[in-house]
Write a structure and sequence with these properties.
This is Methyltransferase domain-containing protein. This protein is of the alpha/beta class and 223 residues long. The protein is built from six helices and eleven strands. The strands form three sheets. A seven-stranded mixed β-sheet has the order 3-2-1-4-5-11-10, sandwiched between helices. A two-stranded antiparallel sheet has the order 6-9.
């Protein structure tokens, strides 16, 4: 065992701090905007409804809304009858979510290292929340999703489509320091498959800013 003075400090990836600090900054204005946009996404809500029906058909169970932001999707999942709770990297977002939906559970956490036991979840929703994750870090995220889902558990993943790596200086009227990554559905499906998922449905739709895609997937029952 190395001496404490020589042991390297455990640090999180730099991109996580950029996401956290940026969303803490934009949280109030972001919350006002995205709840309105969500109401204008019938196809996305239809995919969430299908996800909820599939989870119920499998016997139900705990569902994590990972990257929940201000909690509107968590609340929508609960309205669909799911036992849903939210996780977000930004403490300010979690504060807003808990204030807005006090009957729901929200906690601070990172999708790169979920503070959840193996196999606890019946479902995971990641709704536009991988936008700021570098593509090379997605295998880590998808491995965490797979680890925390029960065998036969379900995932619905929404993301923005394209090939661009963006570095905005401002967003929602505030300075930000995160990067954004548009992804091709074939790449995301490949990475999910490599992480042990079976992708069962794909949805492509126009978005307010960029094209959008949603993938439904599940872990294997004999995992």
């Amino acid at each position: 065992m190395c001496k404490p003075i020589r042991c390297p400090a455990v640090t999180e990836p730099a991109f996580l701090e950029a996401i956290r600090s940026s969303y803490d900054t934009v949280a109030e204005d972001y919350a006002k905007l995205v709840t309105t946009l969500f109401a204008q996404e019938p196809l996305g809500r239809a995919m969430l409804s299908a996800f909820a029906e599939i989870v119920h058909a499998g016997g139900g169970g705990l569902v994590a809304d990972v990257g929940c932001g201000p909690g509107h999707v968590t609340e929508h999942l609960a309205a669909l009858g799911l036992d849903a709770f939210g996780i977000d990297l930004s403490p300010r977002m979690v504060e807003i979510a808990a204030r807005t939906y006090p009957e729901r559970r929200f906690e601070v956490g990172s999708m790169t290292a979920l503070d959840l036991p193996d196999g606890q979840l019946a479902g995971i929703v990641a709704w536009w929340s991988i936008l700021h994750t570098p593509p090379e870090s997605l295998p880590v995220v998808f491995a965490e999703f797979h680890r925390t889902l029960a065998p036969g558990g379900h995932l619905v993943l929404g993301f923005h489509v394209g090939d661009e790596h963006l570095r905005p200086e401002t967003s929602y009227g505030h300075p930000v320091s995160y990067d954004a990554y548009l992804l091709q559905p074939d790449l995301v499906e490949k990475l999910l498959t490599e992480a042990g998922f079976a992708v069962t449905a794909r949805l492509h739709a126009d978005g307010q800013k960029w094209p959008q895609a949603c993938l439904l997937a599940h872990t294997y029952a004999d995992d």
